[in-house]
Amino acid sequence: DETEFRNFIVWLEDQKIRHYKIEDRGNLRNIHSDDWPKSFEKYMKDVNCPFKMQERQETVDWLLGLAVRLEYGDNADKYKDSTPDGAKNADNTAKNAEPLINLDVNNPDFKAGVMALANLLQIQRHDDYLVMLKAIRILVQERLTQDAIAKASQSKEGLPVALEKHILGFDTGDAVLNEAAQILRLLHIEELRELQTKINEAIVAVQAIIADPKTDHRLGKVGR
Known about the structure:
There is one protein chain. This protein is an all-alpha fold. The protein folds into 3 domains: about 80 residues, no CATH class; about 50 residues, no CATH class; about 45 residues. Strand 1 and strand 2 form a beta hairpin. Helix 1 runs parallel beside helix 4 and helix 8 packs across helix 9.
């Protein structure tokens, strides 16, 4: 809208740019005059605008930039510590995305929630609720993620075993009993291996919970 555009230019000059003295703004303020385009073209030259009068979008952007620069120069102390709204929104978004940043570990509701989760997941209690929370996180990551559940749900196909290749170590005097004893021994070995795997996982989980920067279990020592 031509009228709105001219009013906008007059407002910028009157309120922000103030390149002309008040008494010299008459021609620019006379927005209904047929000579207004000439007055505006002269104004653009006087403020050193690099764009042509026909390039309205570029001209508006440039004049707005000039107005902002002059506004800041007049009120530098007021604006120097200001934070853009976009940055504030980004900070708020980040805080909302990380709800544990301002977590109060001494809050009774927090302690009750951790205790309820620990009981539900059958995790050993600890005096430090953060330690229990870390243990819960490890359990959830390793056992309750979609990948972990899918992997656990996969059926394992057994491999054929040649019993004659496994020495029993004793003789019952009965071939059928000897074969049954061999099967029981193999099953027992499998259970021991599974138990050892769980023990190793438990050790790693405990080390992840109580790890100290100065402790390195691989070196078998504590300290620098």
